[in-house]
From TrEMBL:
The keyword Membrane does not apply. Residues 31-190 form the N-acetylmuramoyl-L-alanine amidase domain. InterPro entries: Amidase/PGRP_sf, Amidase_domain, NAMLAA_amidase_2. It catalyses: Hydrolyzes the link between N-acetylmuramoyl residues and L-amino acid residues in certain cell-wall glycopeptides. Pfam families: Amidase_2. It comes from the Bacteria. This is N-acetylmuramoyl-L-alanine amidase. It is an enzyme of class 3 (hydrolase). Its EC number is 3.5.1.28.
Length: 203
């Protein structure tokens, strides 16, 4: 069990603070979900290096050996989700009028439409979700372009140590922030990302 200090930082021997204020985009008074990512890089340091020059990043980073770093305050938004999928389309539950509005729209327009909705009519977004990155690179898929439906990139498998740390962290965050189990997602479930990102993540 951990505690959260007044700055939104976790106090626990299992979490090392590596806060990057550049990732924090404003206050986040309510957390409705958790989104699990993979970095695309092979080390925690490569992610830290990218965070120094970027406004895109998540609240936590889990190294391949299971070390957990907190990179942004739990009380601040971070840009980690990207374009938001339509929840009703993904659940096959759109009202006829909305389905008609969605037809023929771009992904960016759909995302704007989703952001205009209140939770839980939309997926958790940058403004109300915690992002957890798992260190893990991707490689180009040798079947891409020759096998129909093959994805261009394939992410490496999450390590056992990462999954153990992820299970602990998600459990603690859910308890502390009162996040429902069904509102924890892999990145491609809520945004338009490579399907294998965090595919082997387990919580």
């Amino acid at each position: 069990m951990f505690r959260i200090d007044k700055d939104g930082m976790i106090r626990s021997v299992r979490v090392e603070a590596r806060r990057f204020p550049s990732l924090e985009r404003g206050d986040m008074p309510m957390v409705n979900g958790i989104v699990v990512h993979q970095t695309g890089g092979s080390t925690a340091q490569s992610t830290f290096n990218s965070y120094r020059d970027s406004a895109i990043g998540a609240h936590f980073l889990i190294e391949k050996d299971g070390r957990v770093y907190q990179t942004a305050s739990l009380y601040k938004r971070a840009n980690h989700v990207g374009l938001l999928r339509s929840r009703c389309l993904e659940r096959h539950a759109c009202a006829p009028a909305e389905l008609k509005r969605l037809q023929g729209t771009s992904l960016r327009t759909r995302s704007r439409m989703e952001h205009a909705k209140a939770f839980p009519d939309r997926f958790p977004s940058n403004r109300d979700s915690i992002g957890i990155e798992l260190v893990g690179e991707y490689t180009r898929n040798p079947d891409f372009g020759t096998v129909r439906g093959a994805d261009e990139f394939l992410y490496v498998a999450v390590t056992d140590q990462q999954n153990a740390a992820l299970r602990w962290l998600v459990g603690e965050l859910r308890r502390a922030l009162k996040v429902a189990a069904k509102e924890v997602y892999r990145h491609p479930q809520v945004s338009y990302k490579t399907p294998t990102e965090a595919a082997s993540a387990s919580w």
